[in-house]
Amino acid sequence: MSPTPWRWWAAALTLLAFVPVTDRAPGAVSGCPSGASDFVCAVRQSGVGPYRRLPDRELLAFGRRLCEAYVRKDPAEIARIQKRDGVHVLSMAGTLAGICRPAAADVRAQREQQSQEADDEWEAQEQRKCDQAPRHRPRIRPLKVVRERTWTDYGVLEGYGTVTVPDDVDPGAFGSDLLDAAQRDGLVAVDQGVVNVMVDSDMDVCFTAELYRRRPPVETGGWDRVVEFGLGTSSGRIELADQSDGEPLPNLAGLGKGHYRIRLHYRISERDDSQHLLIMSFPGRGDRTVHLKR
User: Fold this and answer.
1) Residues 92 and 194 both lie in one domain
2) pLDDT tens for residues 184-201?
3) How many CB atoms lie within 10 A of CB 245?
4) Helix (H, G, I), strand (E, B), or coil: what is residue 209?
5) Could you give the 3-state DSSP secondary structure of residue 127?
6) Measured between alpha carbons, how far is 270 from 264 in angstroms, rounded to an integer?
7) Residues 63, 44 contacting (CB under 8 angstroms)
8) H-helix or E-strand containing 183?
C-alpha cells in the first residue's frame, strides 16, 4: 500500500528541528539554491515523489535524516524508510552526496573503481591485440628475441647511439630539425647518432626486437614500411624510448660496443586497430639510411 500524502508532509515537518537557521524564507521552494544545492537540485529535477515539492528547509532536513540512515546502514531502518517514504536509502548515494560526506566518499570510490576497471579492460584489450598478432618467424637464428607492448605520449620514439653533435650546433635546434625530418618521412629520421621513429600516439605499439650476430635476409612482405639505418655505440647500449617519458625498450646492441645496422619494419593492422614494430639489429658498417619499402 503506497504511503498517504499526509505521511510525506508529517515526516518532513518533524525534521525541522534539525535544520539550521538560514536567510531563506521557511516556506521557500526554489529550483537550485546555493549552498546545499546539489541535493535539492537532484531531488527537484528527479520528478519522483511528492517530497520534491517540499520547501527547501524541509527537503534538506529530510535529506539529512536519510544521510543518518545511510551512515548507520541498519537493514531494519532501511526497510522502514523504504516502506514509509518509498525510497531505498543505500541506492541514493549520488543524490545524497551534496549533503552527506559518507555518501560523497562512496560515490568517489565507486567512480575511481569504475575508472580503474575501464583502464584495466583497455590494457587487457591492447595486450590481446599484441598477443593474438602473428609472430615473426626469423629466417636465421637470432641471438635474442624480445616482445613488449609500449606507448608514446606524442607518437615519437627516440633512440641514441654514440651522439656526436658538433660544437657549433645548438642541441635543441638539432632535435627539432630531426623531428621535422621524421615527420616529413612519416616513419624515421637519423642524424648524428640519434634516431626518431614516428608511430601513432592513439595506439599502443606491439614491439618486437630481434638481435643477430650477422645480417638477416631482407623481408618486406606484410609490412607498410621497411627502413634500414646505422648507429654506433661506445657505451654498448642503443635504446628506444618515448620522447617525453617512459622506460626505454630493450637494448638493441646485442654484441655490446660497436656499430650496428638497424632494420625497422612497421605496419598498422586495420583488422583490430593495432600497430606493430619489428626491429632487427645486427653488426654492420655504414650510417646510410636505406628505404627498403615505402
Assistant:
1) no
2) 999 999 998 999 999 999
3) 10
4) strand
5) helix
6) 20
7) no
8) helix 171-185
